[in-house]
Specification:
The protein is mainly beta. The chain is built from two helices and eleven strands, in the order E-E-E-E-E-E-E-H-E-E-H-E-E. It has one domain.
């Protein structure tokens, strides 16, 4: 399954597209609910035409989702350990400072459904590159939360190449 192993239990696949690369789209779900809060480490910027975007800070970007029903927290993305570069890198992991809570700039609430998209090279190409853990070797990630209070979608809040 072309989804990072750590997310497979809480990821609902909505669409898989196969061409030169594989694009997987879906949504997080825990406790039969799509209600999450989001925590992040990175630099929040406002981009003209794009709205809010989270960029790496000190070469790191981290996004966690916390189920608002059971309280379970899951790491959605860690730029140091996840993705293609995370599968081939031997860079030491350093402890990041405190995470910030993402709240909707429109209504100030912090309840979101979270859509994720991953891009992968075909499994055969990844294996040729010496990567056995192909589920975790995605080359691009997009994270697009939708505020469940006001309906505002933050398309590609995270839009990052990992290879």
């Amino acid at each position: 399954m072309y989804v990072p192993k750590k997310l497979q239990e809480i990821f609902i696949l909505q669409k898989e597209t196969f061409s030169n690369n594989i694009i997987v789209k879906g949504q997080l779900c825990c406790c039969k609910s799509h209600c999450f809060s989001m925590l992040y480490y990175g630099q929040m910027k406002r981009k003209m035409f794009y709205g809010k975007v989270i960029y790496p800070q000190e070469n790191a970007l981290l996004v966690n989702a916390k189920c608002l029903i059971c309280g379970k927290e899951a790491s959605i993305f860690n730029s140091i350990t996840d993705g293609y570069d995370g599968c081939v890198s031997t860079e030491a992991f350093s402890q990041l400072s405190e995470l910030s809570e993402f709240s909707c700039p429109k209504c100030a609430k912090a309840v979101f459904s979270i859509a994720l998209s991953f891009e992968y090279q075909p499994e055969e190409e990844l294996i040729e590159d010496g990567i056995q853990d192909y589920e975790n070797a995605f080359s691009w990630i997009w994270i697009s939360p939708t505020c469940l209070s006001c309906g505002k979608t933050y398309k590609n809040l995270v839009d990052m190449e990992t290879a």
